[in-house]
Write a structure and sequence with these properties.
Blueprint lengths: L20 E3 L4 E3 L7 E8 L17 E9 L2 E8 L3 H9 L28 E5 L2 E5 L5 E4 L6 E5 L15 E2 L6 E6 L8 E7 L5 E8 L10 E2 L3 E6 L2 E2 L2 H5 L6 E2 L5 E7 L10 E5 L3 E2 L4 E5 L2 E9 L22 E9 L9 E14 L11 E6 L20 E6 L5 E5 L4 E3 L3 E4 L9 E9 L4 E8 L9 E5 L9 E5 H4 L4
Antiparallel strand pairs: 1-5, 2-32, 3-4, 3-33, 4-5, 6-7, 7-8, 8-9, 10-11, 11-12, 12-13, 14-15, 15-18, 16-17, 18-19, 20-22, 21-22, 22-23, 23-24, 24-25, 25-26, 26-27, 28-30, 29-30, 30-31, 31-32
């Protein structure tokens, strides 16, 4: 029988859900715009079976994909497992067979050498396919209409790396998916790969390169001419795994790098240029763009590690104040002769993470960015439903052109999950549309889906869509128009 441990990763709002369901026409308050036609996909780590070793971190749960289908002023719900090789092997065995997060040394002998990916980090749409992504494995393909799992892809055998990022980008000019993989030749290796995939699913570029050191390369950015890789010292090694330590640990003694790889035809690893700066923590990227010879890279930056479950390599205690992240612009100048940064500029005094933009402006000069805000000044009666236990209690909008900011607070007994922008039309001006996000109703142990006017979030949601079940904390999600994924309008 399934007995989950009475630990923070498996109790309260983090209690495993394990629900596959279809719910037609969810109840809602307010008004869902009738012209809104398409689907918001998001993913949550949701363990199918209790952890093999007695406890686990939340990031190691199996991927569960949720789809909210908007049409005719209503919203339908569908939720399905991302049936990875791991999920299927454990399903057939009726028990957990894979051990600690990214540590194959702790696995059951029956699954040695099998793909350990959980497909639990992003739900991504490209070329009419739904990709369930986890950065330690290939991309898992699902049917966005039926949500049935089709299996891992190596893009017609052309992908030679072992891993595919959880954070691809779409080039606005070509429609191609730009991606990368780290630990591409095997666990804890410093080998990386750069990929470019057409909407038809053809891999047309693959470049292998070396990182300055092995680390958790969770996100990256593109500009019109470059791919940008930030190297931050959440490091790992086989020695750590053999000693039973968490796969990653944060090393405050190492510098941070920004790698700039030209995206032109014929580019190679020899063309990558590494810029170096002092130690900090940065994970997700809001956007990047070029301005003459300068490249601007916008990321939430913290003084120290944000993940308490990936502890300091020297045993220093977790510092929540130093873990506070502020949207920061890193600027490098390709015309310079050195490897230093041209500027590092804090863009706001708001503490936040999970940055999002109008994705039609990926890699281009942009005006608007949304984030999950962590406002400790607000009353808080209950906490939960957030990655790493962070208090994510506000939606935040930054206007980079005017400097104006908007904030919307979800109240003392709720928390929020990552926002996602939906354009009003394919050719609508930047920011003209809606923002959608899940809200955790901690007191009632259930969830709502909130829909905002994207540029007037301070007015609150225009529609609150009631989900009669509890969605666990989710990581990332994306929108797709109905005609792009074979759904009825």
């Amino acid at each position: 029988m399934a007995h989950f441990p009475a630990t923070p990763s498996f109790t309260g709002f983090n209690t495993p859900s394990r629900i596959e369901a279809d719910i037609y026409d969810l109840a809602h308050q307010g008004s869902i715009p009738p012209e809104l036609s398409g689907a918001f996909f998001r993913v949550q780590p949701d363990p199918q079976y209790p952890p093999r070793l007695g406890d686990d971190i939340a990031f190691n749960g199996d991927g569960m994909i949720t789809r909210f289908h908007f049409h005719d002023g209503q919203c339908d719900f569908r939720q399905r497992w991302a049936k990875t090789d791991k999920w299927q092997l454990e399903h057939d065995a009726g028990a957990g067979l894979f051990g600690a997060y990214r540590n194959p040394l702790t696995d059951d002998d029956r699954v040695q050498g099998k793909i350990r990916g959980t497909a639990n980090t992003n739900a991504w749409i490209h070329g009419g396919k739904l990709y369930a992504l986890k950065e330690d494995s290939p991309a898992l393909v699902m049917d966005p209409a039926t949500m049935e799992t089709l299996g891992y892809t190596w893009f017609n055998g052309k992908m030679t790396g072992q891993t595919f990022t959880a954070h691809p980008k779409i080039d606005p000019a070509t429609g191609n998916m730009i991606a990368f993989g780290y630990a591409a030749s095997g666990l804890c290796s410093d080998d990386c790969t750069y990929y470019e995939v057409t909407p038809e699913g053809e891999l047309i570029h693959e470049i292998w390169f070396k990182a300055p050191y092995y680390n958790m390369m969770h996100d990256f950015a593109i500009t019109e001419d470059y791919a940008l890789f930030h190297i931050v010292p959440s490091i790992g090694s086989w020695d750590r795994l053999e000693r039973g330590l968490p796969h990653f640990g944060f090393d405050t003694s190492l510098p941070v790098y920004l790698g700039v790889l030209p995206r032109r035809a014929g580019a190679s690893a020899d063309d990558i240029r590494w810029f170096k700066r002092d130690n900090c923590f940065a994970s997700h990227v809001m956007n990047a763009f070029q301005e003459g010879t300068k490249i601007h890279f916008d990321t939430p930056e913290a003084k120290n590690n944000m993940f308490p479950f990936f502890p300091d390599v020297d045993g220093a205690p977790f510092d929540p104040v130093a873990a506070s992240s502020y949207l920061t612009r890193w600027t490098v100048d390709m015309a310079s002769n050195g490897d230093g940064f041209a500027a590092i500029t804090r863009l706001t005094e708001t503490v936040g993470e999970f940055p999002r933009i109008d994705d039609r402006f990926a890699g281009l000069p942009y005006r608007y960015g949304w984030m999950l805000e962590m406002d400790m000044r607000r009353p808080c009666e209950l906490r939960g439903g957030s990655a790493a236990g962070m208090l994510m209690n506000c939606l935040f909008l930054k206007d980079h052109r005017t400097g104006a900011e908007q904030h919307w607070w979800c109240g003392p007994v709720s928390s929020l999950q990552e926002p996602c922008f939906i354009p009003r039309a394919k050719d609508a001006p930047e920011g003209d549309g809606w923002v959608v996000q899940v809200c955790n109703r901690l007191e009632e142990a259930r969830s709502d889906l909130l829909l905002f006017d994207a540029l007037a979030i301070e007015k609150g949601p225009i529609a609150t869509i009631n989900i009669p079940i509890r969605l666990r904390f989710g990581l990332h999600g994306n929108w797709a128009d109905a005609d792009a994924i074979g759904l009825a309008a």
